[in-house]
Design goal:
single chain, Acyl-CoA Binding Protein, PH-domain like, 4-stranded antiparallel beta sheet, 17 helices, about 10% strand
C-alpha cells in the first residue's frame, strides 16, 4: 500500500478480488496493539489508522447484517453472510434452542458435504465436526437425523439460503457484542442489530430498543449514554460502563454507524455527530457509507452472470474449522512446525478431542484481553453458553479478531531480518500453538521496540494537549468578540436603543474617558512613531 492510500481503496481492491458487488454490508476489522478492535475507516489513510508496524493483519467481516439475508440479490453475497453467521454460531454469539441448533448444524453439513452417504459417513459422523462451543451426544444424533432424513437433495446454495432464513428469526441474529457493566456493576453485553439496540444479561435480552426510539448516543471516558424516547413522551437514559475509554469510543462509533445505516432513508441525511455537548471537548464522527435502503435499491439493478463460487477455499475460517478445509496448522515458524500427515477426517477428530467439546480458550487469554478492572467479568465469561441454557457469554466477544494463518511467521521473520530477535515470551507463545498464544504473539510482533511513552499514554497526552489548545482558542475568540463589541460601542455611529442605553450609563462614560481614550491616544502615538521610522529607513 502507498502511505496515503485510503481505506476505501483497500476495501474496493478486496471486493474486486472476491467479485463482490453488494459490498456495503461488509467491512475490514483490525486489532490494535492494546487489543482493542476497530473498523477500518474508509475516508482515512490505512497506515495512519494502524498503531503498529507492518505487516498489518486485518479481517474481512460482515459489518451490517442484512435485515433479510434471503433477499440478497447475489449468491456470492449470501455465501459470505452464511460464513459469518456460521462463525457467530461457533463462537456462541448466535443463541438458540436445541431444536433450532440441530437444524442449523444440519444445514451446514448439507452445504459442505452434500447428501448423506452410508459409504462415506459412518455412524457418529456428525460428532467429528464442531458447530458450537459445546456439543452433546443427543444434539449430535439430532443433527445427523435431520441431515439424513430431511435435507437430501438440497444444493449448497439452497442449504445456505435455508440456514440464513432460520438464523434471521433468532433474537441474537446480527449481534456483535460489546462487554460492559451496568450502573449496578453487573456484566452485560451491548449490541446493535438490524432492528435496534440490544442489551443482554445472562441468557436473556433485557432491553430491546428500536432504532426510531433512539434519539441520541454519546460517551464520556468509559461511560456510554443512550437516550431513548418512547411512546407517551416517555424519555429514558441508559448508562453503561465500558472497560476502557477506547472500547467506549468504539461502541459509540458502532452505534452511530448502525443507526445511520438502518434508520435513515438516504445518505444525504447523515450528519456529523458529537460525543459531548461541551464546546471544547468530545469526539466528532460521521458515517461515510450508503444506507440500507439505498443498498437494496442498488442491488435490484445488478444485472450480470452470477459469479462462480469456490466454496472450498474462498474465505477459509480460522476460528471456525470448515469441513472442506481440513485441519488448521499451528501458526509457528516452519522450522519449529512438526509435520502432520493425517487425513481430513482424522484431523477434525483430533481437533474435536483436543477441544473437549468447547472452544479453545483459556482464562489467561480472556484476562489478558480484558485488561485491568475486568476481573469480575472474566469470572462470568468462563461459562460459555451455546443454546440459551446458560448465561450469555460469547466466546469471541472479548477476544482479538482471528488473524491470517501465516502472519505470525512473517512478522517474526521480518523482526529477525531487521536485527530484532524475538523475546522469550514470544517464543513461548509461538510454540504454544493456541489461538490465545497466536493472537498474543502476533500483537506483540506488531509492536515497535520499547522506549518512550506507550501508545495509550501518548494518546492520552495528545488528547490533553488538544483540549488545552481548544480552550486557549475559545478564550482568544471570546476576547476578540468582546474587543469588537467595545470598538463598535465607542467608535461607531450606530444609534440603536441597545447601544444608546449602554453609552448613557455612568460606568461606560467613566471607562470611555478615563481608560479607553488615553489608551487609544497611546496606540495612535506608537503607530505614528513606527510609520515615521519606516519612512526614515
Amino acid at each position: 500500500l502507498q502511505r496515503d492510500a485510503k481505506g476505501q481503496y483497500l476495501f474496493d481492491l478486496l471486493c474486486h478480488h472476491l467479485n463482490l458487488l453488494e459490498k456495503d454490508y461488509f467491512g475490514i476489522r483490525f486489532v490494535d496493539p492494546d487489543k482493542q478492535r476497530h473498523w477500518l475507516e474508509f475516508t482515512k489513510s490505512v497506515v495512519k489508522q494502524m498503531r503498529a508496524q507492518p505487516p498489518f493483519t486485518m479481517c474481512f467481516r460482515v459489518k451490517f447484517y442484512p435485515t433479510d439475508p434471503a433477499a440478497l440479490k447475489e449468491e456470492i453475497t449470501r455465501y459470505l453472510v452464511f460464513l459469518q453467521i456460521k462463525r457467530d454460531l461457533y463462537h456462541g454469539r448466535l443463541l438458540c434452542k436445541t431444536s433450532d441448533a440441530a437444524l442449523l448444524a444440519a444445514y451446514i453439513l448439507q452445504a459442505e458435504i452434500g447428501d448423506y452417504d452410508p459409504g462415506k459417513h459412518p455412524e457418529g459422523y456428525s460428532s467429528k465436526f464442531q458447530f458450537f462451543p459445546k456439543h452433546s451426544e443427543k444434539l449430535e444424533r439430532k443433527i445427523a437425523e435431520i441431515h439424513k432424513s430431511e435435507l437430501s437433495g438440497q444444493t449448497p446454495a439452497t442449504s445456505e439460503l435455508n440456514f440464513l432464513r432460520k438464523a434471521q428469526t433468532l433474537e441474537t441474529y446480527g449481534v456483535d457484542p460489546h462487554p460492559c457493566k451496568d450502573v449496578s456493576g453487573n456484566a452485560a453485553f451491548l449490541a446493535f442489530t438490524p432492528f435496534g439496540f440490544v442489551v443482554l444479561q445472562g441468557n436473556k435480552r433485557v432491553h430491546f430498543i428500536k432504532w426510531n426510539e433512539v434519539t441520541k448516543m454519546k460517551f464520556e471516558g468509559k461511560t456510554f449514554y443512550l437516550y431513548v424516547s418512547q411512546k407517551e413522551e416517555k424519555k429514558i437514559v441508559l448508562t453503561y460502563f465500558a472497560p476502557t475509554p477506547e472500547a467506549c469510543k468504539h461502541l459509540w462509533k458502532c452505534g452511530i454507524e448502525n443507526q445511520a445505516f438502518y434508520k435513515l432513508e438516504k445518505s444525504s441525511q447523515v450528519r456529523t455527530v458529537s460525543s459531548s455537548n461541551l464546546f471544547f471537548k468530545g469526539s466528532r464522527f460521521r458515517y461515510s457509507g450508503r444506507v440500507a435502503k439505498e443498498v437494496m435499491e442498488s442491488s435490484a439493478k445488478i444485472k450480470r452472470e452470477p459469479p462462480e463460487i469456490h466454496r472450498a477455499g474462498l474465505v477459509p475460517s480460522r476460528s471456525c474449522p470448515s469441513i472442506t478445509h481440513g485441519p488448521r496448522l499451528s501458526s509457528v515458524p516452519r522450522t519449529r512446525r512438526r509435520a502432520v500427515h493425517i487425513s481430513i477426517m482424522e484431523g477434525l477428530e483430533s481437533l474435536r478431542d483436543s477441544a473437549h467439546s468447547t472452544p479453545v480458550r483459556s482464562a489467561s487469554h480472556g484476562d489478558a484481553f480484558a485488561g485491568p478492572g475486568r476481573s469480575g467479568r472474566a469470572e462470568s465469561s468462563e461459562r460459555v453458553a451455546v443454546i440459551a441454557d446458560e448465561s450469555y457469554s460469547p466466546a469471541d466477544s472479548v477476544l482479538p479478531t482471528p488473524v491470517a494463518e501465516h502472519s505470525l511467521e512473517l512478522m517474526l521473520l521480518s523482526r529477525q531480518a531487521n536485527g530484532a530477535p524475538c523475546s522469550i515470551e514470544e517464543e513461548k507463545e509461538s510454540e504454544a500453538g493456541t489461538p490465545a498464544a497466536e493472537a498474543e504473539g502476533e500483537l506483540r510482533a506488531l509492536c515497535p521496540g520499547a522506549g518512550g511513552l506507550g501508545p495509550a499514554q501518548a494518546q492520552q497526552v495528545n488528547k490533553f494537549l488538544l483540549s488545552v489548545l481548544r480552550l486557549l482558542l475559545v478564550t482568544i475568540g471570546l476576547l476578540f468578540v468582546l474587543l469588537l463589541l467595545l470598538i463598535i460601542l465607542t467608535e461607531s455611529d450606530l444609534d440603536t436603543a441597545f447601544f444608546r442605553d449602554i453609552r448613557q450609563t455612568p460606568e461606560f462614560e467613566q471607562f470611555h474617558y478615563q481608560y479607553f481614550c488615553p489608551l487609544r491616544r497611546w496606540f495612535a502615538c506608537k503607530l505614528r512613531a513606527v510609520v515615521n521610522l519606516l519612512i526614515d529607513t
